[in-house]
Amino acid sequence: MTELLTSAQMRANEHAAIASGEVTGLELMERAGRGVVDAIFEHWWTYRQRPHRAVILCGPGNNGGDGYVVARLLRDLNWDVTVFALGDPERLPPDALTNYNRWVETGRVAPLTLANYDAYSDAHGPADLYIDALFGTGITRPVTGDAWEVLGRLVGMGQGMGVGPVVAVDAPSGLCMDSGRLLGAEGAYAWGLNQFAALTVTFDCPKVGHYLADGPGLCGRLAVVDIGIQKWRGQYVVGKAAQSVWLAEMTPDDLGARAVTLPVKQAWHAHHGQTHKYSHGHAMVVTGGEGHTGAARLAARGALRIGAGLVTLAVPGPAMPEVAAQITAVMMREISDARALDTVLEDERLNALCIGPGLGFGPARADLVRAVLQAKRPTVLDADALTLLAEHEELRDLLHDGCILTPHGGEFARLFPDIAAKLTAPRLPKPSDSQSADLAAHNAYRSALAAQTGPAYSKVDAVREAAKRAGCTVLLKGADTVIARPEGAAVVHAAVYDRAAPWLATAGSGDVLAGIMTGLLAMGQTSVQAAAGAVWMHTECARAFGPGLIAEDLPEQIPTVVKALVK
Ligand SMILES: NC(=O)C1=CN([C@@H]2O[C@H](COP(=O)(O)OP(=O)(O)OC[C@H]3O[C@@H](n4cnc5c(N)ncnc54)[C@H](O)[C@@H]3O)[C@@H](O)[C@H]2O)[C@@H](O)CC1
Ligand SMILES: [K+]
């Protein structure tokens, strides 16, 4: 799996590399700048054919330093390059200053002001390429003033004829690379979340913020450039597992994805190498009442298709005919109440449980959740079970290490309202109209904005906090799904960039996900393996099917995806 780094981890890697004496900061900056140019040429072959006109925005730190390297390399290829610099270039850090000095030997730099930028644009019209090298991992507070306004001018670039795209160096400026949240809430830039960079070129490893929240929308596409510092990765080992964030991913030739796909592979091979159906586990999915069994049936199908040896639906008596009419390989047991469920769960061979899809509400359903939790098996709690957990504190007290909670945003907010509030709160609320109209109030807002420092609270922070409180694995769904353990290990699964599958948002899709996860638990995977493997498989199935997908199609794609995986 690919590790996703935070800004602090990236800085630590860079320091370790430079401290080793094997490489200098200046060399790293040169590699970074060259990597950006190479990535641009790889994405737009026309730029390789003849020189074009570029506008480069350079910031006050090393991200700006990368920008000066790019400026020089493009100019060496006879490009017409205009650089706007934020702040006093003489105060740049040493490596960036060296590259600034090299650039000004022959190039020019204009101060980055809105007036200068607009005057240039009026005189020359749109450029062929815009490079945002204002801020990278060193961003500590919202971008304000003219720099923010000029970033707003870049929104939508690349979308008209003859208007060049934006390439972001390391990240779109203002993006918090730990949370994927744009620091700063108002203005054209903040509203152009899906129309900013066409390409973002980052270094060594992708960062967490490239995959969460606003990150993918702002970044456009993501290219990762190797600057030769892999061997210093992970020098920040104190409490490493608890700080690490991994990307759940997989391409056929992507060995990095093994940790996620291996559970699926191992389980699959084990499935074929052994003969007894009980050795592949026995999953039980609890259904809702009459007319509400579809969701649990979908989950059961997912569990069976992924490879659980046996899958049984626990069904209330009156719903038995309805279920019987619609299942074949899945079995069913009558469970009229919690006592009956207790009795059935005395069978230790039932080694993974799923409750919630279509379950319904009320005391009798809460009792079923209690029975499931008291059985202390690896358990997926989804949908209505999550709402019941939110309503009943005594049920939450029964959560154990083998549980996986799989909330979507709304369910998460019901379960962990205070944590959800931190996640959704703007770092500063938008000013009211009257505040905006009042200059003094507006300026006060501006200074409060500028005074905010540090990375924004992220979805990873939130899910880690929730997992710690719940004492079990928590998976918060979304285009950016985050899975976290109580001790802090986290996996991000992002159905973004090349893996976007918006048609996965269809009724019953979550039920299948819960079922695949339960199947993997039955097959002996740990909760993180099962959660990460299931969410990856779920998206792959959607991608394999394509648009037009309905939830029933998902389990039926599993064999195709697994076949490709184990080939
Ligand atoms: N870490 C690494 O291994 C490498 C980093 N490189 C580049 O260096 C960048 C990081 O450089 P820095 O740490 O200098 O950080 P940045 O260049 O991202 O920005 C830091 C500067 O901006 C100021 N600043 C932060 N927020 C601001 C705001 N809202 N308004 C105005 N000023 C603000 C800081 O006070 C500081 O002067 C990376 O993003 C990358 O582009 C590359 O050169 C190569 C290697
Ligand atoms: K940038």
In short:
With 567 residues, this protein is of the alpha/beta class. It is built from 25 helices and 18 strands.
What labels would you give this structure?
2 domains, YjeF_N_dom, 25 helices, alpha/beta, Rossmann fold, UDP-N-acetylmuramoyl-L-alanine:D-glutamate ligase, 567 residues
Would you kindly provide a written description of the structure presented here, covering whatever features stand out?
The protein has two domains: 2-236, Rossmann fold (3-Layer(aba) Sandwich), CATH 3.40.50; 263-566, UDP-N-acetylmuramoyl-L-alanine:D-glutamate ligase (3-Layer(aba) Sandwich), CATH 3.40.1190. It has 567 residues and is of the alpha/beta class. Mean pLDDT is 90; it is low at 250-261. Helices cover 45% and strands 14% of the residues. Helix 15 (363-374) links the parallel strand 13 (350-355) and strand 14 (379-381). It contains 25 helices and 18 strands. It starts with a strand and ends with a helix. The strands form two sheets. An eleven-stranded mixed β-sheet has the order 1-9-18-17-16-15-14-13-10-11-12, sandwiched between helices. Strands 4-3-2-5-6-7-8 form a seven-stranded parallel β-sheet. The chain is elongated, with a radius of gyration of 26 Å. The longest helix has 19 residues, at 25-43. Bound molecules: ligand NAX and potassium ion. Residues 63, 132-136, 168-171, 173 line the site of potassium ion.
